[in-house]
User: Fold this.
Amino acid sequence: MKWLRRNKPESAAGKGDGAQETFPLVKKRAMCHVCGDVQSFTQVWRRAAMVRRCPNCGLVFENPEELYKRFQPACPKCEEPLEQPGFEYGYCDRCGSKFELMEGAKPGLLPNQSQRDEMRKHGKSWSYV
Ligand SMILES: [Zn+2]
Ligand SMILES: [Zn+2]
Assistant:
């Protein structure tokens, strides 16, 4: 199985992992399940490439394509949900929760470490579907 490597713009190189893998979008308003209300999302982006390094624990993925075979890819070490290419994401301005924001779909929460810990404490496993 081969992963076709796209050429990345040279200007974005050396700016740290991930910077060139996403494109910023204009802000949106969406329902935040955590706040329980419609909030503005100022920081919104579209992911262009697979996540190759966990943004939470820093684990470098040897075979990201293996992780992306799952319906909901996640870091094998800390369970951080991974953003998927072609999908749009954003942070709630009020509480900072990260959501998948697709037009015409309900926003899906991508719980961070403390939100996952909290869910586990209540006997729930995180799942954003
Ligand atoms: Zn919120
Ligand atoms: Zn991780």
Observations:
- The pocket of zinc ion (ligand 1) is lined by residues 32, 34-35, 39, 92, 94-95, 97 (CB under 6 Å).
